[in-house]
Amino acid sequence: MNLGKALVCTGIFLFGITTWAVDPRGRIDICGEKNTLIAPGISPEGGSLSNPNGQIVYSQGNALIDEKWENYKFSFIPQTDGAVYILLKAIYFVKEGEEKSTSIWVRWDDVNVDGASLVNGDFEKADINGKLEGWNTNPHNYIDEEGNKCVRVCHDSYAVQRIAVTKGREVTITAKVKRDKTEGR
Ligand SMILES: [Ca+2]
User: Fold this and answer.
1) What's the CA-to-centroid distance between 2 and ligand 1, angstroms?
2) Using a CB cutoff of 8 Å and minimum separation of 24, what contacts does 138-147 make?
3) Where are the domains of the chain?
4) Which of 21, 136, 149, 172 could potentially form a cystine with 114 if both were Cys, beta carbons 3.0 to 4.6 Å apart?
5) Would the pLDDT of 20 be above 80?
6) How far is the CA of 112 from the centre of ligand 1 (A)?
């Protein structure tokens, strides 16, 4: 029996409840606008990249074990001129025996795009109402970590920005991601 299973069993035994059986992972989806077609490029280290149809690329990163910023990098290649939406989120997770998904939260910061133009990738710019420059997200997802701003998101409550892309010009996205400190283990 590994440690993870032992902890889960201990949780059931002592409290009659199950504990988390999954570590958070960052996920970034790229969705082509209108007729914009995209193809997958490089995959995140320790993660995966998939291309369920010609307009979508899903990237998913490594398991986030410690509460520290980890590097995230992947790319895609536009097959047409157009625009895409970048969705910063976390993995989709359904607990065993349940029908509804459970929200897994991660934090993102320092998003940088090579091959296209993105604004406010460090999340430092927002108006007085907390509306982030360049991004759309729930204001509650905007986090101030002792002066450093970032976003806290899950699969269904993400941060999104639209960027223009050029046919054949590979777009490489780098970012920092970490497990959220409020996330259970
Ligand atoms: Ca920041």
Assistant:
1) 37
2) 143/107, 145/107
3) 22-179
4) 172
5) no
6) 12
